[in-house]
Amino acid sequence: MLIARVIGTTVSTIKDEKLVGRKLLICRPADENGVASGKPYVAIDTLDAGVGDLVLTAAGSSARQTAITKDTPVDTVIMGIIDSLHVDGETTYRK
Amino acid sequence: MLIARVIGTTVSTIKDEKLVGRKLLICRPADENGVASGKPYVAIDTLDAGVGDLVLTAAGSSARQTAITKDTPVDTVIMGIIDSLHVDGETTYRK
Amino acid sequence: MLIARVIGTTVSTIKDEKLVGRKLLICRPADENGVASGKPYVAIDTLDAGVGDLVLTAAGSSARQTAITKDTPVDTVIMGIIDSLHVDGETTYRK
Amino acid sequence: MLIARVIGTTVSTIKDEKLVGRKLLICRPADENGVASGKPYVAIDTLDAGVGDLVLTAAGSSARQTAITKDTPVDTVIMGIIDSLHVDGETTYRK
Amino acid sequence: MLIARVIGTTVSTIKDEKLVGRKLLICRPADENGVASGKPYVAIDTLDAGVGDLVLTAAGSSARQTAITKDTPVDTVIMGIIDSLHVDGETTYRK
Known about the structure:
Five copies of one chain form a homopentamer. Chain A is mainly β and 95 residues long.
């Protein structure tokens, strides 16, 4: 999984029919301190995450292992909202 | 999923028989503002996307979760055409 | 899928038994003009492609969606031989 | 598989229900000497690994081939804790 | 598939039970001349490859398409030992 910051939303009228009503969020990869950088990607939301949240995303066929994403053409899912990160005994991020 | 700009088309006579009649579009990865850069890749089109469109592409086995791509040797599919992108409360792209 | 140039061949006597008799071609990733650069990878050929051809390769489980590659330990397949590429209304490559 | 150093832990209350009670560890990719560098990723732990351990992680659908991760939306699993690494006849790492 | 040089071995006592007795080799990606460079990865051996061999590795779910790796949490397998490489009519590597 990748740590990522939710930075925005996408609007798409023409899309695969299984995705109607689903929220597709723009995520930027983040490091162990929650600092985001680099090229963004888009993940389907199954947890009601919001812009600004630090999340965990799973990619590939693993993204289809939720009730919402089963059999859908999505390759990345938000599977956790991060409360805090801890590295070498220190708290590096807290929501 | 990746945000990408459709920049062109491929013509291929000799191809896997399941792909006859399918449109294979050249896509360049784009950022959250819709600005494309970097090495292109090719995605199968299931939504009648056109050159110039900003799209969402899904990769891997997820690309085979549509009626058109089921059981075909394709690893990337256009699964949404983007109307608009919104980052930190601002509209960064509108079709 | 990636656009790639076939640059060579591999010879391998000791290999998974399902791959006996199969052609494993060395491919270099190419851009939308057919210009190849970067680190090569190896794809199984199912279309009788030859050195010098510009091809499309599919990766991951999608590489196993052909009669020849079903249930074999290969992760990349040549699924199309490119006749021409067209970008922004111009022909950027013709075989 | 990748060699990686476990550098920390994540806390996530809101997550896919199949992941309740599971440990999600922050890993940094390492080289053949066990020296870690680069952007971290998160793996589910099935072996009671701890911070500081050098581990092997498997990604993609392979991450779901354990009793704990079956049918869960995780794309990376710790599938081995490394005792030692040996390169060109020399021991480059020992726990 | 990637061309890679086997550079070493890993020892891991605590690992997924399906991997007991399996050889996990450290591989460094190589180019079309057999010259290895870059960050190493680890592949399961099914062909009795040895340190120094140039091999082909398959990744992802394809790595589980052998009798030895079926249903195991491994994402990379050595599926061929390379005898020779040929690029543009010249032999660039011979074992």
